[in-house]
Amino acid sequence: MALLFFLVYNMVGDNMNIVDIINKKRNHQELSKEELTYAINSYMQEETKDYQISALLMAICLNGMSEDEVINLTEIMLSSGDTFDLSSVSGIKVDKHSTGGVGDKTTLVVAPLVAACGLVVSKMSGRGLGHTGGTIDKLESIENINVNLSREQFIKQLNEINVAITTSDVNMVPADKKLYALRDVTGTVSSLPLIASSIMSKKLATNADKIVLDVKVGEGALLNNKEDAIELAKIMVKIGKHFGKETIALITNMNSPLGNSVGNGLEVVEAIEALKGKGDSNFINLCIILASHMVSIGKNVDIEVAKQEVMENLNSGLAYQKFEQMVAYQQGNINNIAIASKTLSYNANREGYLNGIKPLELGNYVMKLGAGRKTKEDIIDYGVGIVLNKKIGDYVYPGDSLATIYIKNEDVDTSPLDDIFIIEEDEKEKDPLLYDIVK
Ligand code: URA
């Protein structure tokens, strides 16, 4: 793939100029595949400079991209590195991707659950940055677990037990790594075509047959309004289909943290509880919805049939056994999950309905406790975090414990939580869990 990338670059590069390409996008004109190839590849070769590609990204951010442009950009990014070859893994491979949220540990439940239903879940995940955590960080709270499987280990595990979660050992989509770092510091993260090509190039590189996307919308998500989330979902579904991968997207709520825990080890414990059918019903329901859609497209069966199979595997304990098996295959000790030994309770200071828990602010609070990274270099504490003791809609009284905070040091300031937990006299209508489905 990467070789093809450089050959194409050298063929198209001769009579092109990055300034013309920036001007064209600035003037609302559509860029050809050759022009996009030149822009991305010359940037990878360090001929085009950061400031020039930043100008192009901003022009894309302001003026958008046509469907052809987004598909071409995705293909060019995909070709910038290696793809993962899963042809030696038998069975249908289904992947799941979340655009990220606070307390989102669904992969830990959904991957073994879908594998228990007989599909292959080949999951390559990442680490977290900022207020959202990464699946790999959560898994690393399990003592000794190996989340850096070699290709051979990954494929062997998939063939033997249908499920593996790892970081990637291959050079996948280096163009996205470079572009994303630049977008992060140039105010160009929120562009829908740029998000779509970034996510889908990585999904395509991992090479599953079918893809279910969880596009989160709300205060704790990348996107705050439903229309943008639906638009993003439509673009990503089109890209998936263009490349021959059946893709569907669920638009789900992220106006409050998902489940009752935020923090790496605590979230693994919550995922284990959910696999045993216990815990926050919102979180369990979302896992069931996602898993049912994965089984439905993976096996080409009606969603109700898929849901029944998912429920059987959850209720029989087979999904939990699959999780145990996966952890054991990856050398993890499931009996030793990092949980901080010191706790303190955060109590309500007034009476009323718990109408909201601000997800972004809670995510940042937990990050500052040590559970997340502000910069890529930060070392995280797997044991710290927060467990919510009340649900949205509960009526609370002064002195009721709203949350248990798992801490490393005693000197934790709980005053920011006064603005994070919203207690009001009148009960507010609850948001739905699932807003829409884009196929
Ligand atoms: N996640 C990604 O992988 N890419 C984006 O652009 C945004 C979120």
Write the layout of secondary structure elements.
Elements: H1 2-12, H2 18-26, H3 33-44, H4 50-63, H5 67-78, E1 94-98, H6 106-116, E2 121-124, H7 135-139, E3 142-143, H8 151-161, E4 163-166, H9 174-184, H10 192-206, E5 210-217, H11 226-242, E6 246-253, E7 261-262, H12 264-275, H13 281-299, H14 303-315, H15 318-329, E8 333-337, E9 342-347, E10 352-357, H16 359-371, E11 385-388, E12 395-396, E13 401-407, H17 417-420, E14 421-424, E15 434-438
Parallel strand pairs: 1-5, 2-4, 5-6
Antiparallel strand pairs: 3-8, 6-15, 7-11, 9-13, 10-12, 10-14, 11-13
Bound molecules: uracil.
Structural features, described:
This protein is an alpha+beta fold and 439 residues long. The chain has 3 domains: 2-64, Transferase, Pyrimidine Nucleoside Phosphorylase, Chain C (Transferase, Pyrimidine Nucleoside Phosphorylase, Chain A, domain 3), CATH 1.20.970; 93-336, 3-Layer(aba) Sandwich (Pyrimidine Nucleoside Phosphorylase, Chain A, domain 2); 339-424, Pyrimidine nucleoside phosphorylase-like, C-terminal domain (Aldehyde Oxidoreductase, domain 3, Alpha-Beta Complex). Helix content is 46%, strand content 16%. It has 17 helices and 15 strands. It has helices at residues 2-12, 18-26, 33-44, 50-63, 67-78, 106-116, 135-139, 151-161, 174-184, 192-206, 226-242, 264-275, 281-299, 303-315, 318-329, 359-371, 417-420; strands at 94-98, 121-124, 142-143, 163-166, 210-217, 246-253, 261-262, 333-337, 342-347, 352-357, 385-388, 395-396, 401-407, 421-424, 434-438. The chain has a 4-stranded mixed β-sheet with strand order 1-5-6-15, sandwiched between helices. The chain has a 4-stranded antiparallel β-sheet with strand order 7-11-13-9, sandwiched between helices. Strand 5 (210-217), helix 11 (226-242) and strand 6 form a beta-alpha-beta unit. Helix 5 (67-78) packs across helix 10 (192-206). The longest helix is centred in the middle third of the chain and has 19 residues, at 281-299. The structure holds uracil (URA). Uracil binds at residues 99, 180, 194-195, 198-199, 222.
